[in-house]
Design a protein that fits this description.
The protein has 13 helices and no strands. Helix 3 packs across helix 10 (139-153). The chain has one domain (9-209): Hypothetical protein af1432, CATH 1.10.3210.10. By secondary structure, it is mostly helical. The chain binds fe (ii) ion (FE2).
Length: 212
Amino acid sequence: MNSEVPIWAKAAVKSILLSVKSKDPFTYYHCCRVGLEAARLGAFMGLDSFQQSLLEYSGLLHDIGKVGIADNILLKPERLTDEEFKIMKGHSELSVLMIEPLVEQDRFFKLLVPGIRYHHERYDGKGYPYKMSGQNIPLTARILTIVDTVDAMTNTRPYRKALPMESAEKELLKYSGSQFDGQLVSQYLRSKQSKEVPLEDNLVSSEFLKVA
Ligand SMILES: [Fe+2]
């Protein structure tokens, strides 16, 4: 079976992300950081370079559906109402919809769908949109939800100040086994302590992060 990243993948994803950036720069940089951290965790876990690329690209694309969310909801500086939150919850499925032509073109993009589609599911089944639980949630999605949440907590938003990394790690531990897969939380925390992660240095996510 073909286990390669298509040579055009980087350019295709960059185009999508630049359109995200023109609407919401925060989401652009968030996606880049999540892609990078997901690849880093995959490398720490000993996953092969193809699996690392799957994690990286799933992270890069997980929130692109936010371009389909109205600005008054996406960029709202206050807490969302229930109705607004319901609309916001549609973004993961919208992300999948937006990469459909790429999915049809190449198996690599097809393999990105589970991580993107289920990145807001919770281990205890209280996530969205499908309320999947435990190991039924694909591994990529269980990894993404950890790095996604840490990134959200450690960056300042209009409605909330950034938490220091130590507080974010405490939150992860608090919700280990409920929101998050406990084994992956331990792996993540260990990966953060580790200085020797066998990560390739020419990652597309780090290159995208350098875009001003
Ligand atoms: Fe998301």
